[in-house]
Amino acid sequence: MIINFDKYQGTGNDFIIINGIKQPHALELHRDQIARLCDRHFGIGADGLMILTQDEGTDFLMSYYNADGRESTMCGNGGRCLSAFAYQEGVCDAESIFQAIDGIHKVRITEGPYVELEMKDVTAIDRDGDAFVIDTGSPHYVVFVEDYEALDIVSFGKSIRYAERYAEQGINVNVASLIGDTLHVKTYERGVEDETYSCGTGVTASAIAASLYYPRLADTREVSIVSKGGGLSVKFSRETDGTYKRVWLCGPATKVFSGSIDVKE
Q1: What is the pLDDT of residues 54-93, one digit of tens each?
Q2: Separation of alpha carbons 137 and 101, rounded Å
Q3: Is 78 within 8 Å of 107 (Cβ atoms)?
Q4: Which of 38, 81, 92, 199 is catalytic?
Q5: The pTM is what?
Q6: Where does the chain hold its CATH 3.10.310.10 domain(s)?
Q7: Selecting from 3.40.1030.10, 3.10.310.10, 3.40.50.300, 3.40.50.970, what CATH number does the domain 2-119+253-260 have?
Q8: DSSP state at residue 54
Q9: Active-site annotation holder among 38, 75, 81, 250
Q10: Given this model, what pLDDT does residue 84 score?
């Protein structure tokens, strides 16, 4: 089966993107095939794979798969990259809406492309000891430390992700430090089972947690983020009832290359 694809990255978080409208046979890809495509030694290599298809009520539908081939929850950088791809393909305008597993998302695209993606509202924030547990479309564990560089995110991430409390469903693990006015974040992602260069839902969760953890961010409406792969920003409105609405993940989304591949059974 021949598949045409584009490779995109958003601050180093990289994805294989397939236009399922033009290639409906791509919907037949099974878990092992997706995992092989995402393999960095035997495939194209990516943190995840997305298929764009038509949606009756919005501009398009986003289907997202982790690097292990399993269909997953929302991916923020993936949503930004897929929106840039959809715009390039003429599927949507610079302002659009799309359907993902966690609901409908608004998008704004400007030159670069620079993509702003509205995330889901955050209505509940839990604690696990010193850590914050927040669902921003995917579940995230966020802990703040003095020196985030000194911590081995892979070993620490595994210790949380496979802890009894989280082992069955898995959780993404973020470690962050506020340096000056910028939040620096490292993320271990379930499904990839490794550190990724960036995680959109992770930096969103980290920004929201930081507004609660750091007193000088208590009144902020935008947090600047540095991930391993580059800079992002998260905008939000903190409501009087403690919920977070109008949450926007903002940053670049870049096409890397296009290609085709013969996917073996």
Answers
A1: 999 999 999 999 999 999 999 999 999 999 999 999 999 9
A2: 8
A3: no
A4: 199
A5: 0.96
A6: 2-119+253-260, 125-250
A7: 3.10.310.10
A8: -
A9: 75
A10: 98
DSSP state of 215: G
Direct distance between the N- and C-terminal alpha carbons of the chain, in angstroms, rounded to an integer: 8
For 125-250, CATH gives 3.10.310.10
What tokens does 219 get? 């009144």
At 265 the pLDDT is: 79
CA Rg, the chain, in Å? 18
pLDDT score recorded for residue 34: 98
Asked whether the beta carbons of 223 and 217 are under 8 A apart, the reply is: yes
Here the tokens at position 254 are 């870049």
3-state DSSP call for residue 161? helix
For the cut 90, the answer to whether the pLDDT of residue 101 exceeds it is yes
Residue reference for tokens 């914050």: 132
Q: How far apart are CA 78 and CA 129, in angstroms?
A: 30
Residues 6 or more apart in contact with residue 159 via CB below 8 angstroms: none
Q: Render pLDDT for 137-150 as a digit per residue (tens, 0 to 9).
A: 999 999 999 999 99
**Residue 249: predicted pLDDT:** 98
Angle of CA points 32, 172, 201, to nearest 5°: 95
Could you tell me which residues are beta bridge partners of residue 231? 226
Query: Other C-beta atoms within 10 Å of 149: how many?
Result: 11
Q: Where are the beta strands (DSSP E) in the chain?
A: 2-10, 13-19, 48-53, 60-66, 95-100, 103-110, 114-118, 125-128, 131-135, 139-144, 172-179, 182-189, 194-196, 222-227, 230-238, 244-252, 254-262
Q: Is 81 a known active-site residue? A: no
Is 199 designated active site?
Answer: yes
Structure tokens at 105: 């998302």
